[in-house]
Design brief:
With about 150 residues, the protein is mainly α. Helix content is about 70%, strand content about 5%. The protein is built from six helices and two strands; from the N terminus they run ααααββαα. It has helices at about 1-25, 35-45, 50-60, 60-75, 95-115, 120-145, and strands at about 80, 90-95. Strands 1-2 form a two-stranded antiparallel ribbon. α2 (about 35-45) packs across α4 (about 60-75), α2 packs across α5 and α3 (about 50-60) crosses α4. The longest helix has 25 residues, at about 1-25. The two termini are about 20 Å apart.
Length: about 150
């Protein structure tokens, strides 16, 4: 049982570290950090998102998203449409510069995902994600005291 726990926690930690490292390596030329890359990725795939929506999609806290949006806005990647609404309720959208970087992020993400799935059939990949989703949901229930 001890080996199972160690294997599980070490692998999850290594996966998370590797994802952050890949994000940072792939986007080093833009001097962006992992949460900023996640924001650009999700904004590229949408027509604009509020900071609350970005918190949910990026799985980051408000402070991290707020700092990320500030950096992205000051760097010219995004703008905030604050026409008569409070800033936190206003959607952020990509500038042309942001769209160009967003396109590169999506391309690189897809390239990495293809490489991660090497050696797996489509059915195996589907089953893997089903199991990973179940593990995630179970852990969330346990952490919320519902299990």
């Amino acid at each position: 049982m001890k080996k199972r726990f160690e294997t599980f926690t070490v692998l999850i930690t290594k996966i998370n570290r590797s994802i952050r490292k890949i994000k940072n390596q792939e986007m080093a030329e833009y001097n962006l950090k992992s949460p900023q890359i996640s924001c650009l990725y999700h904004l590229y795939l949408s027509d604009g998102l509020t900071s609350t929506e970005l918190c949910e999609r990026c799985e980051e806290d408000k402070a991290t998203i707020s700092r990320s949006l500030d950096v992205l806005e000051k760097s010219g990647y995004i703008v905030c449409e604050t026409a008569g609404t409070k800033r936190y309720k206003s959607p952020f959208i990509l500038t042309e510069k942001g769209k160009a970087v967003g396109e590169k992020i999506v391309y690189k993400v897809n390239r990495v995902l293809d490489a991660v799935g090497d050696g797996m059939s489509e059915d195996e990949r589907i089953t893997f994600y089903q199991h990973l989703t179940a593990i995630c949901e179970n852990l969330e229930c346990i952490s919320n005291g519902q299990h």
